[in-house]
Amino acid sequence: MTVPILEISGVSKTFGANHANDDISMSLAKGEIVALLGENGAGKTTLMNILFGHYLADAGKVLVDGQELPPGKPREAIRAGIGMVHQHFSLAPNLTVLENVMTGTEPLWLLKSGVNAARGKLTAISERFGLRIDPDARVGDLTVGEQQRVEILKALYNDARILVLDEPTAVLTNIEAERLFITLKEMAQNGLSLIFISHKLDEVMAAADRIVVLRGGRKVAERKASETNKAELAELMVGHRVKRPIRTPSAPGDVVFEAIDVTVRTGGVDRLKSVNFHLRAGEVLGIIGVSGNGQTMLAKLLSGTVHRSEGEMLLFGKAIGDLSVAEAIAAGIGRIPEDRNHEGAIGEMAIWENAILERLPSFSKHGLVDRKAGQEFARSVIEAFDVRGGTPTSRTRLLSGGNMQKLILGRNLINRPRILVAAQPARGLDEGAVAAVHERILEARNKGTAVLLISEDLDEVMALADRVQAIVGGRLSPSLTAEEADARTLGLMMAGEWKAEAVNAL
Amino acid sequence: MIALFDILASAGLWAAVLRIATPLLFGTLGALVCERAGVLNLGIEGIMTFGAMIGWYSVYSGADLWTGFLIAALAGGIFGLLHAVLTVTLGLSQHVTGLGVTLFASSFAYYIFRLFVPVAGTPPTIEPFQPIDIPGLSSLPFIGPAFFSQTPPTYLAVALALILAYFLFRTPLGLAMRMTGENPHAAEAQGINPMIVRYGALIFGSALMGMAGAFLTLSAFNSFFPTMVQGRGWICIALVVFSSWRPGRALLGALLFAFFDGFQLRLQTALSGVIPYQIFLMIPYILSIAALAVMARRARVPQALMQPYRRGER
To answer: Which part of the chain is the ABC transporter domain (chain A) (predicted)?
Structure first.
């Protein structure tokens, strides 16, 4: 038996009363891909931060090639060949790719940087691992996928033999994620050892050789990918069987919103090109598409934050002019914004403040904010929507992603909106939270809300939508019913294939 | 028109431009170094005042000019250290701390001055730096007297701009510093201690601010009075933005401002009686704001400027 390249043994770490890691052991062999699977808060990131020396463990040790790593020293971890790719990139957008990669790799007292040698080394690595990039590009000008490539290159440039990726697909589109996993597999074949942290069952099954499951800070299981399945992993991860809600056939009512040949133009570019769609009460319309194809504009159109340039819109059967945000709210349009941290909630403000923000006038008394009513309202949202980890007066930033999303969902749904615009509602959430969010959306739909679901996740759209339209380059496809929309057809539609079919049909 | 042309064609104007630019250049480079590492240093106005006082007082008490200059730099560095303790270690608001340092340093300067220098009708004077002719170059027609007959600190300031440009963009430490100002977490992940980098930048940058002040009393004038910095520190803060955080452009910016200033001084005399001189006093500031509006729109601010760094927090 060969010595594993990396061994973590008996690592424990507590933050106050919280056991983030409790006696966790795991190992990694050369050329192996191990997935660290667990819900948010299961202790995955803590464990990797200990490995990398960002945190000091209370007990346990980390061995690289059988040698113990001095704890709490990121520099030693780098020297031992551990590279970390964080979920939130550690990049300087104003600097070039090469500068980002080179920082700290040379003795600081040198009078001249070896820029040319560094460029050569970077180019060699990027060619060897198929991570093509322009070394002199400004990082801020790169796409998210390319920025991740820079992060990986940074680690490889430091001669990493063990690469840790923290939720690498959280910020990627499906296609970018697929490409990433192909690259990772190639890297493993080239002799690198990889650990990736994830809560997504699909990618864990697809990419990993071995899967270590964490729950509540403990290691609960270890499986070979070939000897397990998604259902078992889901159960191990959550601790009980997760039931994704099941969609019952819908009973659509009246058309509540209709867009006819609507074009939205900003900065001289057509973001939406003469799109047609309608929403019916008690029905979910799914808009599927790779992000960046105009779905943001679609959501903004209904929220009143962007105005159409051409076309007609009917709200509850009446032609309307441009919606303002206040009018949209008054008309009963609830919104779940795409980026919950920036548009959905204000982290530094209390939960109750975030809960009433959209409806400030109804929580005012004599021109002052009615704190009591606001906190009462927040308490009812927290209770009705099972928001955990906060009280009405605690800061919203402290909520986990899933609970923040439940808060946003709750403040919208508690008033039974007539229309709900849900943009990427489950992005970045763990299994349990995804199920909860989906359940609430279907519940609202069953109570008669018309839902516009914008998503790039095929599974999500197929699970929730009664009708589906694809969005590509600002154009919307004709709609398909849920029965017609299988994964293959939707995949083709996301690639813009409906046009050819439509032409053929003529 | 002829009056204007005469002003522009006089070597005296251009010599004055370099002289006026020197303290601005020291100060701008100092603030630039601090900001490149991610710390706004609004202590500049006070540090300059203190540097002007302590540099002058050292020479007045018998030290030679260069020793006075160095003492001013050292004093600046100590205020930089104070600013670093407050903003880097304690993570306090950089605006508020900086203004505090300015108020403290300028009052402290005046206090020491009053403590040791007797009140007199005319302030006591010292023998300041004398212009040094660069052999060969200074005898060139026009250009010689305009640019190569300056006091030594002026040559030092210009050289510093070039050295700092090289340092920031060509050395590993310069890159580490820029990275600290852009993303200290990334710097930390690459094994650089952002705290140390910020301390170093603040101490060095503030030392330059001290020199900026010392230039006023040891070269431009020969005595100290408490209001002599006259907002030059704030001009430097604006020049940093104007320069897009680049030392080479800082040199350009300081010269441009100094040109406006030198020009208006001469216009005042040329057109005295025709237009109130206060109008001319405003010109450099108005033009600076205009130039800033044009340049700053394209500027790339260090992304971590004014954000305190705390380990382990994101």
So the answer is: 6-241, 257-498
Give chain A's domains with CATH numbers.
6-238 (3.40.50.300), 255-346+399-504 (3.40.50.300)
Does the pLDDT value for residue A460 go beyond 90?
Answer: no
Does B115 reach chain A within 8 Å, measured CB to CB? no
Residue A117, SS3 per DSSP: helix
Q: Are B268 and B148 in contact (CB under 8 A)?
A: no
Does residue A46 belong to the interface with chain B, where contact is any CB pair within 8 Å? no
Predicted TM-score (pTM) above 0.80: no
- With contact defined as beta carbons under 8 Å apart, do A210 and A223 qualify? yes
d(CA B238, CA B259): 16
Cα of B169 to nearest chain A Cα, Å: 9
Under the banding of pLDDT at 50, 70 and 90, the label for residue B53 is: very high
Taking Cα atoms as reference points, which of B88, B102, B110 lies closest to residue B43? B102
Q: Which of A95, A105, A158 sits opposite B178 (nearest CB)?
A: A95
pLDDT at position A506 over 50 = no
Residue A212 pLDDT level (bands cut at 50, 70, 90): very high
Residue A503: predicted pLDDT: 41
- For the stretch B261-283, pLDDT in tens is 888 888 888 877 788 888 888 88
The token pair that represents A337 in the structure block: 């914004």
Backbone torsions φ then ψ of A257, nearest 5 degrees: -145, 140
CA separation for the pair B165, A484 (Å, rounded)? 64
Mean pLDDT of A32-45: 86
Convert the pLDDT of each residue in A98-119 to its tens digit.
Answer: 999 999 888 888 999 999 999 9
Residue B209 distance to chain A (closest CA, Å): 24
Residue type, A173: T
**Residues near A432 by Cβ (< 8 Å), separated by ≥ 6?**
A39, A238, A242, A402
E strand intervals along A363-481: 364-365, 368-369, 419-423, 450-455, 467-472, 475-476, 480-481
In chain A, residues 147-166 whose CB comes closer than 8 Å to chain B: 154, 158
Q: Is the CB of residue B190 less than 8 Å away from at least one CB of chain A?
A: yes
The answer to whether B188 faces chain A, any CB pair under 8 Å, is yes
For B21, phi and psi rounded to 5 degrees? -70, -25
Distance CA B310, CA B288 (A): 36
For residue B178, the distance in angstroms to the closest alpha carbon of chain A comes to: 8
Helix orientation angle between B152-170 and B11-36, rounded to the nearest 10 degrees: 40
Is B61 at the interface with chain A, CB within 8 A? no
Report CB contact under 8 Å: A104, B312: no
DSSP β-bridge partners for residue A34: A195, A210
- pLDDT, tens digit, for every residue of A266-298? 877 788 888 889 899 989 999 988 777 888 888
pLDDT at A504: 46
CA B229 to each of CA A505, B27, B186, B212: distance values in angstroms, whole numbers, following the listed order: 80, 11, 38, 9
**Residues of chain A contacting B189 with CB distance shorter than 8 Å:** 74, 84, 86, 90
Q: Per-domain residue ranges for chain B?
A: 2-125+145-296
Sort strands B132-133 and A218-224 into parallel, antiparallel or unpaired.
unpaired
The mean-pLDDT minimum among A35-39, A145-149, A244-248, A407-411 falls in A244-248
Distance from CA of B77 to the nearest CA of A (A): 21
At position A71, the amino acid (one-letter code) is P
Which CATH architecture fits B2-125+145-296?
Orthogonal Bundle (1.10)
- Interface check A116 vs B, CB under 8 A: no
- Give residue-wise pLDDT tens across range A124-183: 999 888 888 999 999 988 888 889 999 999 999 988 999 999 888 877 777 778 888 998
